[in-house]
Q: What sequence folds into this?
């Protein structure tokens, strides 16, 4: 079992630096079984030596199987000794029959690659003695800061740690980025929107370090910061406003958790407390109502139609492991983890912490931090309005159904062609109404659609349990036996069993709640109060400063959102099947700093933003050379260019058009969408007022069964499970969403109006203002003249007035959204609006240097 | 039952070199802050516009794992769950027990109510040279049996609509996994870069079965998601700019955009991706023509329109979609899924299933015949089925017009074209049609067979996600060898 993938984590004091060196150098030169060796075996060997065929009892599909070997020769490889390994000798024809049997031999490079892999396997003696735990399971200690040659470049230890690695590779960092790019970078990084032209001008006038630090501080205090970074967290915790699954019912109060997250980031709440609140906030009286709101975390799983308790538990263990610990615990649900030291037993020991938990809704008055508390009367009015809408819909449904059914009282003949010769179909009761409606014989298309709308609204929102949509309620959690709010330990915890193959019907032995065995030696943990609720014990264990994973995982996520890539690129998989890292010391430095500064996330931002690493340009003069050696920029020899996420694009458009409504918190708003799309999803969708719709995207209703096309095509989060990074794709439908969609057209026109207001009638100043708003720079002479030409060149055809998107059909009696009519469409403004549309579609607008 | 041999889990680590960079876990890391996937006309690559710097176009046609039998697939999805004993699986014995309480005391899972057997109100006859039995629900389809393989023994894991629909489309009961179409396009790319690779004609009406999550890319990159098409009006949302925007205006806008974008490319590390993004504006502009053209059934001669039943109010909606599907696969679209609704006949199976037959029979038969006469059937896999089958029994309180309940232990499906052995019947249910007993195939087997016919190996078509290489068939499926 001494192979690279299964190196046992044994007891022993690991010398940190030695391990770091191992992790650091191993990554780039090491031959990887999965990506390099396995494909060769797959193509050439597995047809006779996989788990199905097993010729000579030999299986070659995993390192373990190879080490185990076959019936004839025993182990196929001798770790560290390729020349003597039977596998190599057969492949070279030194042992007969030469392999692959009856086929041409492998290419010399392929055999060489396999030999290198064998040679890098640690000899068995090594693996069993003194290897110790490896990073990231080792104790967290702040590393020594290395000396570097170019000391002038070092502003803080981050620079030293990165530069030292670069220098070992003979590489130099990129020059600093321009002041303009720098300001744009911190604006987008910290608040997710561009600076105003005025802020840019102010910043460019004062090139001092203090001015930069001043800007960083201002942005960290800006409430938009919490919206930006809260969104990153919401990705991780699989936030959505619906339950998912087929019916996809709303979780009508879950926005209170969303607001809680935003608030926590804005207040720079200590991360250890943030963790505790989300896992066991109800059990810490000192956290008050905030703690109970944090429990939304436990309430965000997908509920299938067959909602089983096991689904809930799997969701909780999976998400907890991935979000807080950066581990793929779920791999150990069906069998011992294939790559990390997590036996299946540990998976169920973790599950046992949640075994007495149940989730659901409960009353919880609004706190002083929450919007509705500020205006209880308005809230009450909304509650009443909601109730009226529900009643109205119910009445409408009953009335319409009764009326429609009257037409079905006698059998009718379907109209049609030769297929329907004997097409008399008796239709008798409500169940048949749908059939009749679908036929389109007795009813007009409008009647049909009206009926569907009514039905949809009734099923999705008229659900009895959601009648209290605007009541101060919360999605929370409590212990099954003791009921909501109990703080006492429960004497009769439901027993947790190891489930064979993860199958709930196949129970193995019973297990008690317990911590991951891989961490026991490095991080011995004894709960201070053994009678404590197990969930609280788990929260204490995760948020303990000695837990080697928690802080490392979180600082890596912070780094990821500043640099586009984590130091561990698979930010939710710190295990062996993840990317690993070249920079364990840097992670440890940041993590130690994080814990020492009372788990302050903003303290980590400050440190990172101060560094020269962060201020590099995306262009390194030696990029050509470096790219061939380090194509993925894992040494950080330049900054990574970044495409804005869907939310940042939409928010920036609103910011630039001047239409952004900065109101924070409260239930999600519904954007306008094409009606046809909505028929397919289960959730009722009624567009909010224009003012509401112009709020930041984080406040947009997140339905699991239906996402706004713009979110979808710009790689929005997968709302069904923890999303630790957004993908970045470039697809043609993005053009539909950003160039054709009525929302963007409307914003372009409003931006044009704003420009006329702010820059006057002069085309030249209009072009300048447009560039300054969108890109925070002046147009180049070339751009200026092209822009002016564009504004002045008449189009041949006169255009009819542009219609704004029509909202979905609304059932009669249900108040329709009366948005104010669009601004008048003067001819000049049309051209200017098109110019704005073009600016909002520029690469420079959605890419960040 | 699902094979729970965990040795197979290790196989998740198997990347596939035939998928190039895409199948490799490196791919994940390369996405970077940069642009991972670029959907772009292969034409642009041929024109050398992108030069040597161009990244792989992830939608470019890719080499299959093995010679493909089918190049495209049309999946006719009968949402709600069609009944086996009223369509392709005659059970004469069932008619004898009409009205008898279920022998095993079968009860409805939710209410515990006793169920009564219901004989089939449909008449079965043998058709074609093969003599496959088909009910009189499908008189037209019955003339195609020599090209069809009827599989009577497929079973699934859930008898709840949404779960079973997710299972049929993604192999998983909870949403969030890539759909069959997404996997196929991920594995094979597509032949026509001016049309979406994977299109869906969704059902209209109330949701409840999970909607777009059934054609979602799940954890695969967004390029692989299904594009929902409307069969009337503007087919894709926002394909056209708001009314009143002229083509001249759009062209002027794109031209200005190109001028403004050009200087920004200079020395940018993502130059080729930025360039690709610029080209997408032209592609999207062209799609305003190509997509409606591909869907323009008015271009078809009257005989063809009539064949598909476009002249008939009842058959028209399905006919239109089937004809559009043919036009799409003809143009190189890889995967088309058509939904038909209303198969959930808890009551009045006689009336409701009859209506479903009237709506779909002629169009589906037309599709098979039309594909065949154009020589396209050999390379187009056509599949028909719902998310589960139905029980031989009805609830007693529906006895006035008896229907059938959900059944996950057997369901009817048929396949045609694309390497399918025509004129075959695979597997068998018990005497009353309740459960697959002979050669039962799990839905993962079905998916493995799908991929097999498309030239893909379900064990090798993997994507690295959440710490392991995932695949459509989870731990793997068996190929339904009787039909290939």
A:
């Amino acid at each position: 079992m001494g192979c690279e993938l299964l190196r046992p984590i044994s007891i022993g004091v690991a010398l940190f630096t030695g391990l770091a060196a191992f992790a650091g150098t191993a990554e780039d030169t090491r031959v990887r079984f999965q990506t390099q060796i396995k494909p060769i075996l797959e193509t050439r060997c597995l047809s006779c030596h996989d788990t199905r065929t097993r010729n000579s009892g030999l299986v070659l599909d995993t390192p373990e199987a190879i080490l185990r070997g076959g019936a004839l020769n025993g182990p196929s490889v001798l770790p560290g000794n390729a020349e003597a390994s039977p596998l190599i000798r057969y492949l070279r024809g030194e042992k007969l029959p030469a392999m692959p049997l009856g086929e041409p031999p492998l290419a010399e490079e392929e055999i060489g690659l396999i030999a290198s892999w064998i040679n890098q396997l640690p000899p068995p003696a090594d693996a069993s003695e003194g290897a110790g735990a490896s990073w990231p399971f080792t104790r967290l200690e702040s590393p020594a800061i290395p000396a570097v040659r170019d000391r002038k470049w070092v502003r803080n230890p981050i620079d030293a740690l990165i530069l030292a690695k670069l220098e070992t590779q003979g590489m130099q960092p990129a020059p600093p980025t321009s002041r303009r790019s720098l300001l744009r970078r911190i604006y987008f990084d910290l608040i997710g929107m561009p600076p105003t032209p005025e802020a840019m001008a102010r910043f460019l006038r004062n090139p001092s370090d203090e001015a930069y630090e001043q800007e960083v501080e201002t942005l960290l205090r800006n409430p938009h910061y919490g919206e930006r970074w809260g969104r990153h967290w919401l990705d991780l915790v699989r936030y959505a406003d619906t339950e998912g699954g087929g019916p996809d019912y709303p979780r009508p109060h879950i926005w209170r958790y969303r607001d809680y997250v935003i608030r926590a980031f804005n207040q720079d709440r200590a991360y250890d407390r943030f963790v505790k609140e989300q896992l066991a906030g109800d059990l810490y009286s000192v956290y008050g109502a905030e703690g109970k709101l944090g429990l939304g975390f436990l309430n965000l799983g997908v509920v299938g139609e067959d909602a089983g308790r096991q689904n809930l538990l799997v969701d909780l263990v999976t998400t907890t492991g991935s979000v807080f610990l950066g581990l793929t615990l779920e791999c150990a649900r069906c069998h011992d983890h294939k790559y990390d030291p997590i036996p299946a037993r540990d998976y169920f020991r973790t599950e046992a912490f949640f075994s007495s938990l149940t989730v659901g809704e409960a009353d919880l008055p609004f706190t002083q931090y929450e919007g509705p508390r500020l205006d209880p009367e308005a809230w009450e009015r909304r509650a009443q309005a909601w109730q009226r809408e529900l009643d109205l819909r119910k009445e409408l449904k009953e009335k319409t159904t009764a009326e429609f059914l009257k037409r079905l009282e006698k059998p009718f003949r379907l109209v049609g062609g030769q297929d329907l010769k004997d097409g008399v179909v008796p239709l008798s009761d409500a169940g048949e109404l749908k059939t009749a409606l679908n036929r389109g014989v007795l009813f007009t298309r409008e009647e049909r659609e009206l009926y569907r709308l009514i039905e949809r609204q009734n099923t999705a929102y008229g659900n009895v349990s959601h009648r209290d949509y605007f009541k101060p309620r919360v999605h929370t959690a409590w212990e099954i036996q003791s009921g909501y709010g109990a703080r006492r330990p429960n004497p009769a915890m439901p027993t947790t069993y190891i489930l064979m193959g993860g199958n709930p019907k196949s129970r193995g032995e019973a297990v008690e709640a317990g911590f991951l065995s891989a961490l026991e030696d490095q991080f011995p943990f004894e709960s201070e109060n053994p009678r404590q609720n197990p969930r609280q014990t788990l929260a204490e264990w995760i948020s303990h400063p000695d837990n080697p994973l928690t802080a490392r995982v979180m600082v890596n996520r912070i780094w990821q959102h500043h640099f586009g890539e984590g130091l561990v690129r698979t930010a939710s998989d710190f295990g062996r099947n993840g990317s690993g890292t070249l920079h364990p010391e840097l992670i440890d430095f940041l993590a130690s700093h994080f814990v020492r500064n009372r788990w302050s996330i903003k303290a980590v931002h400050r440190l990172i933003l101060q560094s020269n690493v962060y201020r590099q340009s995306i262009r390194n003069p030696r990029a050509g050379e470096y790219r061939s050696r380090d194509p993925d920029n894992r040494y950080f020899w330049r900054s990574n260019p970044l495409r804005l996420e869907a939310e940042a694009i939409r928010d920036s458009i609103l910011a630039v058009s001047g239409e952004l409504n900065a109101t924070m918190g409260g239930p999600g708003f519904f954007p306008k969408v094409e009606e046809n799309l909505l028929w397919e999803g289960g959730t009722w969708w009624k567009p909010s007022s224009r003012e509401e719709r112009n709020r930041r995207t984080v406040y947009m209703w997140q339905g699991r069964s239906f996402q706004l096309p713009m979110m979808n095509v710009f790689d929005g989060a997968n709302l069904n499970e923890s999303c630790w990074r957004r993908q970045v794709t470039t697809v043609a439908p993005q053009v539909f969403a950003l160039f054709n969609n009525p929302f963007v057209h409307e914003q372009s026109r409003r931006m044009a109006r704003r420009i006329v207001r702010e820059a006057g009638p002069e085309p030249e100043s209009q072009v300048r203002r447009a560039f300054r708003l969108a890109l925070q720079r002046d147009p180049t002479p070339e751009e200026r003249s092209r822009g002016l030409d564009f504004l002045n060149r008449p189009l041949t055809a006169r255009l009819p007035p542009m219609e704004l998107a029509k909202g979905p059909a609304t059932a009669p009696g249900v108040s329709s959204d009366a948005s104010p009519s669009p601004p008048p469409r003067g001819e000049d403004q049309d051209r200017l609006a098109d110019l704005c549309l073009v600016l909002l579609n520029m690469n420079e607008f959605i890419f960040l240097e | 039952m699902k094979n729970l041999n965990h040795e197979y889990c290790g196989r998740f680590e198997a990347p596939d070199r035939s998928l190039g960079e895409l199948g490799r876990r490196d791919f994940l890391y390369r996405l970077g802050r940069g642009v991972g996937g670029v959907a772009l006309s292969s034409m642009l690559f041929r024109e050398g516009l992108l030069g040597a710097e161009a990244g792989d176009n992830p939608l470019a046609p890719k080499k299959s794992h093995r010679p493909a039998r089918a190049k495209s697939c049309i999946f006719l999805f009968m949402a709600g769950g069609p009944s086996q004993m009223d369509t392709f699986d005659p059970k004469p014995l069932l008619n004898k027990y009409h009205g008898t309480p279920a022998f095993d005391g079968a009860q409805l899972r939710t209410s515990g109510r006793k169920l009564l057997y219901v004989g089939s109100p449909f008449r079965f006859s043998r058709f074609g040279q093969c003599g496959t039995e088909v009910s009189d629900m499908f008189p037209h389809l019955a003339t195609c049996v020599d090209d069809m393989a009827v599989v009577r023994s497929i079973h699934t894991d859930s008898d709840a609509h949404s779960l079973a629909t997710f299972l049929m489309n993604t192999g998983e009961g909870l949403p969030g996994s890539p759909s069959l179409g997404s996997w196929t396009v991920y594995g094979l790319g597509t032949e026509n870069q001016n049309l979406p690779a994977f299109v869906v004609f969704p059902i209209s009406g109330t949701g409840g079965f999970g909607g777009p999550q059934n054609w979602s890319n799940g954890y695969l990159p967004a390029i692989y998601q299904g594009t929902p098409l409307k069969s009337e009006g503007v087919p894709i949302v926002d394909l056209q700019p708001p009314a009143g925007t002229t083509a001249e205006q759009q062209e002027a806008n794109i031209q200005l955009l190109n001028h403004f974008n050009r200087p920004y490319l200079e020395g940018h590390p993502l130059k080729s991706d930025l360039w690709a993004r610029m080209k997408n504006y032209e592609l999207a502009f062209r799609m305003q023509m190509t997509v409606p053209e591909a869907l323009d059934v008015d271009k078809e001669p009257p005989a063809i329109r009539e064949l598909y039943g476009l002249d008939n109010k009842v058959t028209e909606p399905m006919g239109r979609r089937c004809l559009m599907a043919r036009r799409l696969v003809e143009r190189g679209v890889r995967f088309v899924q058509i939904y038909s609704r209303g198969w959930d006949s808890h009551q009045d199976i006689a009336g409701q299933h009859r209506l479903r037959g009237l709506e779909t029979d002629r169009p589906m038969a037309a599709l098979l015949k039309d594909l065949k006469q154009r020589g396209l059937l050999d390379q187009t896999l056509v599949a028909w089925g719902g998310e589960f089958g139905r029980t031989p029994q009805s609830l007693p309180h529906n006895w006035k017009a008896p229907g059938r309940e959900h059944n996950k232990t057997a369901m009817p499906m048929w396949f045609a074209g694309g390497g399918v052995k025509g004129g075959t019947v695979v597997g068998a249910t018990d005497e009353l049609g309740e459960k697959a007993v002979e050669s039962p195939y799990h839905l993962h087997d079905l998916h493995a067979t799908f991929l097999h016919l498309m030239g893909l190996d379900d064990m090798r078509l993997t994507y690295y996600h959440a710490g392991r290489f995932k695949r459509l068939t989870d731990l793997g499926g068996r190929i339904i060898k009787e039909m290939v």
Notes: Chain A has a mean pLDDT of 82.
